[in-house]
Design a protein that fits this description.
Layout (H helix, E strand, L loop, with lengths): L4 H26 L9 H24 L26 H5 L2 H32 L5 H6 L4 H10 L2 H17 L2 H8 L6 H29 L7 H9 L1
Length: about 230
Amino acid sequence: MLISQADAVAGTLLARRRFLLGAAAVSGLLALPGCATMGGQMSYTEAVRHLLELATRNAFARLTAPDGFWTSAVARVNMPTLFGKRGGIIQGILTSDMFREKLQHQLNRFAEDGARKAAPLVADTVRTIGIANAMALLKGEPTAATTFLRNQMGPALVNAMIPELDRVMRVADDPIVNQAISALAGVNIGDAAHALALEADNAIWYEIGAAEADIRRNPESTNDPLLIAALKAL
């Protein structure tokens, strides 16, 4: 089938228009507020930072609310293995379902204090952390940015929460927790605080990951132009 010169010209104009529209879309992303002038990579870096800021803020808001850990679908703190030891008196206490539930609930309440201690540390890290693979993080799994942040922070949250949990557990002097600890030979509140901090650390990252996944599923809910544009562009 022969193509007339007019058709060829029209086709060229259409292709050029499509190219210009695509270029304009990319330029619009790079020119969004809050982006630096170093090109696309820096824009995506800011998008990852916005994603982490929102995810961590939402997660800690949930976890530090009354019974935040206990009612979370992903962050309820499990019974630390410290309280799962068997033998002697412990058999008669921790084999009771009612006692175990009361103990676990109280430990989840203490975890809220740990999260309050951890929240500023996470926020400071998000503001200052270097992000070299921003585009890959945005294109990654639903919790890719959370995984990256957790790997960068290492045991920082555990180390921050241990002394705080030790303090609040001593001040609370809770009879359920005290009874459980007294039944474990050679175990003190400091040991319990350490065990709880390890569980709370996992729970916090699970909640942040869930918050990140929620944002990725519905970026429009953030009302963040940069984040919306970056997630949709990728």
